[in-house]
Structures are given as structure tokens and as C-alpha cells.
Write a structure and sequence with these properties.
This protein is α+β, with helices and mostly antiparallel strands and 303 residues long. α2 crosses α4 and α7 runs antiparallel to α8. Helices cover 38% and strands 14% of the residues. It folds into two domains: 217 residues; 54 residues, no CATH class.
């Protein structure tokens, strides 16, 4: 039985007093879906994505931090890591910015998890756990048309044998939120659509979906977190880090810049506007003027 540890009965009544923090922020996402007191919310999300393979009844939340093992190594912190009741290890990541390395990162995260398990003498290699990584992306990362994609090791066509699955021990899921509306609803179960809608814009969730206990619980918890000063401070710190990610791709937009760099600056500004970054942040990381950004904002609204 999964129970809440604090009272959230009044959260939904206060949802209009302050804007909700975005679940597409990794800090907010981890607080919302990676809490021991709200494990059933994570269970419901996983079942919506995995659609019975496996069917998850409960989860145990696992440590998410991997400290560097060498002086020049890199520390890694996963957003959410959990072990299901059937022993499957699941890693869920939310990603606002397409850094171009998602596939490699997913494989690396799987390898970090796998190396914790020791195969003893006489034990079968089949005993290694099933490991699933789920990446929920707020930007397109593939040329594919669908919203959700599953990757497993495959035998490629060799001219004689057909393409077939080699193993389902290591599964990767990529979910592209921007393609949800363009994907026929028949391709996914109803709960998948509801959760993706919630993650994209929780304030747009119709009242009828709040009859689902897990969705109601998630919204109440998000309302609570959004009103908590400490949580907002942590969110703002992480928000700044995301701004810094944009700075690695930004250009110097000054007199005499080429058309290519100018176009890149506007692309950066559009992405940041879409993610609701503040005007001052966009000025800093795109190099555009306030007037140019306001004009771009107006064009986006009218378009």
C-alpha cells in the first residue's frame, strides 16, 4: 500500500494563486515523480509508458548519484532510478534541451547501473537485471514522426536473415513531447496521453482527468511544491543552469555578424521563449536586443 506522508488536500484549491512550476524542469520532475511518499504516481506513469511490459505494481526508489571514481572522472546524477516489484531497474530522465548526445548518455547510464551487479561463479549471465531507460524530451531529437520510440539491440538485415530483436535486457524509450499532438491517439493508451499532457502543461489538465487519483495527487503535490519557497529557490538555481546550456550554443550578436550567426541567435531566442525563459535571460544568452525579442514574442503569439 502506497500512502502520502503529508496532507495535500488543500493544494488544488490554491492552484490559481501562483503559477505552477514546470515538470519539464529536471529538479521539479524528480521531486514530483521520485518521491517515496508519492510512489504510486511514478508507478502510474511507468505503466502508462511501458504498457504492460512489465506491469508495475510497486517500486523501490534507488540512489541516483554516481560519484566519480577517478580524479579526471565525471560525477553523474540520474533524475529518477527505481527497481520495480519484478526486479526491473528503471531510469527516467527529463530533458529540456537537445544536447545531441542523448543516445550515448542513455547507454552510459545503463552501463553505470549494470556494473553494480556481480555475476558470481556458476551464475548465469541471464541473471543480470532488465534495465530500462526512459528519456522524456521537450525538444525533437529524431527525424521520426511518432511521439514515443523503443530501442533494443537488433540483428540488422544481412541479406539472408530478417531484422529481429536480439535481446530485451536493455531497453531505451525516447518520448518527444513536441510530437504528441501529431500522433494519432490510437497509438498510445489514454494514461500515456494524460501524463504527457500533464508534464507539458499541468495547468491545462481538464477537471475530468483529476478523477484519476494519481493525476490528482500529482497536481496537488506540484501545487504544494510551487508554493514552497525553498523549492522555488532550488528551481531557480536549476533554471539558471539550463540558461547556461543555451550559452554554450549562443553567438555574439553584434554589428557586422553574418546572416548565419544572426539566424542562430533568433533560433536560440525562439527556443527560450517556448520554454518560458525571462526576457533578461534571453537577452544574455542570445545576444538579441530587448526590442527584437519582444517583436519575436509578438510574432509567436500572432502566429
Amino acid at each position: 500500500m502506497i500512502n502520502n506522508t503529508h496532507n495535500t488536500s488543500s493544494h488544488s484549491s490554491n492552484r490559481s494563486t501562483q503559477s505552477l512550476l514546470p515538470p519539464t524542469n529536471d529538479y521539479v520532475f524528480a521531486r514530483l515523480f521520485g518521491s517515496n511518499s508519492h510512489r504510486r504516481v511514478l508507478v502510474c506513469l511507468l505503466n502508462a509508458i511501458l504498457n504492460g511490459k512489465p506491469n508495475v505494481k510497486d517500486v523501490t526508489l534507488d540512489p541516483t548519484e554516481y560519484k566519480k571514481t577517478t580524479a579526471d572522472g565525471k560525477s553523474i546524477r540520474l533524475d529518477i532510478r527505481a527497481t520495480t516489484d519484478n526486479g526491473t531497474v528503471v531510469n527516467v530522465e527529463i530533458q529540456c534541451v537537445n544536447t545531441g548526445d542523448m543516445h550515448s548518455r542513455s547507454l552510459y547510464y545503463q552501463s553505470l547501473i549494470l556494473r553494480e551487479y556481480t555475476i558470481k561463479q556458476g551464475q548465469s549471465y541471464k541473471d543480470i537485471p532488465n534495465i530500462i531507460t526512459i528519456w522524456i524530451m521537450n525538444e525533437p531529437v529524431t527525424e521520426r514522426k511518432g511521439c514515443m520510440h523503443e530501442i533494443v539491440p537488433m540483428y540488422k538485415d544481412n541479406g539472408i536473415d530478417k531484422i529481429e530483436i536480439a535481446s530485451e535486457k536493455m531497453r531505451q524509450f525516447i518520448i518527444e513531447l513536441t510530437k504528441l499532438e501529431n500522433t494519432p491517439k490510437s497509438f498510445y493508451n489514454d494514461m500515456f496521453s494524460i501524463w504527457m499532457m500533464f508534464i507539458q502543461n499541468p495547468e491545462s489538465i481538464p477537471e475530468e482527468f483529476l478523477k484519476i487519483e494519481e493525476v490528482k495527487e500529482a497536481l496537488e503535490e506540484l501545487t504544494y511544491l510551487s508554493q514552497d519557497k525553498e523549492t522555488r529557490a532550488e528551481y531557480n538555481a536549476r533554471h539558471k543552469e539550463l540558461c547556461d546550456q543555451f550559452s554554450s550554443n549562443t553567438v555574439s550578436y553584434e554589428k557586422g555578424v553574418g546572416e548565419g550567426e544572426k539566424k542562430k541567435a533568433f533560433e536560440i531566442a525562439r527556443k527560450m521563449l517556448a520554454k518560458d525563459f525571462g526576457i533578461e535571460d534571453i537577452i544574455e544568452y542570445s545576444g538579441l536586443t530587448k526590442e527584437e525579442i519582444l517583436k519575436l514574442q509578438k510574432e509567436n503569439v500572432s502566429g
